[in-house]
Structures are given as structure tokens and as C-alpha cells.
Specification:
This protein is α+β, with helices and mostly antiparallel strands. Helix content is 19%, strand content 28%. The protein has a domain at 23-92 and 131-157: Immunoglobulin-like, CATH 2.60.40. It has helices spanning 2-16, 22-25, 105-108, 111-118, and strands at 31-37, 40-41, 46-51, 61-64, 70-72, 74-75, 78-79, 84-91, 142-145, 150-157. Strands 1, 2, 5 and 10 form a four-stranded mixed beta sheet that branches. It has a four-stranded antiparallel beta sheet with strand order 4-3-8-9, with no helix packed on it. Strands 6-7 form a two-stranded antiparallel ribbon.
Length: 162
């Protein structure tokens, strides 16, 4: 009888690890690179990859750039994106509140929190009219992620772009 209970318990433990969600089944490939503004690293910017057109398996994802402008795209806390065509959106960092004081780093890590703290109520972006990279419908940036992934991408933004 004890042997039967032990076998049943082991079988239950094995079955618990068998299931997986559809999100876990999506094949992701590495997507890394750097965002620069006029040739200089753009720290604290949010880079987002939004699936475009026929990219049915696309995984919207992104990252916040480091001090050197580097990013490592991720989708739902998993590193990488699904291969396919993406619109690339870059939100400028917003490091000051409505009174011109620097925001704490805990707030600037999130565009949403940065927008709320700055008093704009919007996710950390200035109006699209002076920053075309911050909205999917105005951003001139796009990228097709290859089947094997893409590392070393460089998105060199221009402050003079309208």
C-alpha cells in the first residue's frame, strides 16, 4: 500500500511540470543593440518593438536603454522576440518632474511612472510633433527580426528629425 502511494505521489509531481502556457511555447530569438541620439548613447529611453502587418506570431516587447544606450529586448519577462517585422518606437527619457527636479531612478525606469510623476499624465513622452520616434504611427524606424535573432543593432536617432 505504501509503495502504491509513493508511486502515485511521484506521478503527480511529474505531471505538475508537464503543462505550459501558449506564451511559453513561442520561440524567441535574441534582439540586442544600442540606441543613440546624434551619435551619442541615449540612456533611459524606452525602446519598443510592435508587430507589423503579416507578423502574426509577433511578440510586442522591448527594454529600457542602459547608460551606454544598450538594450536587450524581452517579451513577458523572457529574453528575445519572435522573428518577424516590427515597428520600432523609442520614447525619450523624461528625467525631471513638472518643477524641473530630477526624478528618482525608480520612477524613470518606467515610462508610465515617469509620465505620472512629471505631471503630464502621459507615459514619459513629449508631444509627437517634436519627437517622431515616440509613436508607432510617426516613427520612421522598423526592423525585421531574423530567424536566428539580431545582435548589435544600432538605432541612431537625430534630434533634428520632425
Amino acid at each position: 500500500m505504501r509503495a502504491w502511494i509513493l508511486v502515485a505521489a511521484l506521478a503527480l509531481l511529474v505531471c505538475v511540470g508537464c503543462g505550459g502556457s501558449a506564451v511559453d511555447a513561442i520561440r524567441l530569438v535574441p534582439v540586442t543593440g544600442t540606441v543613440t541620439l546624434d551619435g551619442k548613447p541615449l540612456a533611459g529611453a524606452t525602446i519598443s518593438f510592435i508587430p507589423e502587418g503579416s507578423n502574426k506570431e509577433g511578440t510586442a516587447g522591448g527594454d529600457i536603454t542602459g547608460t551606454d544606450g544598450s538594450f536587450k529586448a524581452s517579451y513577458r519577462n523572457r529574453t528575445g522576440l519572435a522573428p518577424g517585422k516590427y515597428k520600432v518606437v523609442v520614447s525619450r527619457p523624461k528625467a525631471k518632474d513638472g518643477n524641473g527636479k530630477a526624478l528618482p531612478s525608480e520612477l524613470t525606469k518606467s515610462g508610465y511612472m515617469s509620465g505620472l510623476a512629471s505631471g503630464s499624465g502621459a507615459p514619459g513622452n513629449p508631444a509627437a510633433s517634436d519627437w517622431p520616434y515616440g509613436m508607432a504611427d510617426t516613427s520612421p524606424l522598423s526592423h525585421t527580426v531574423s530567424e536566428s535573432g539580431d545582435t548589435g543593432l544600432v538605432f541612431d536617432l537625430k534630434s533634428s528629425a520632425k
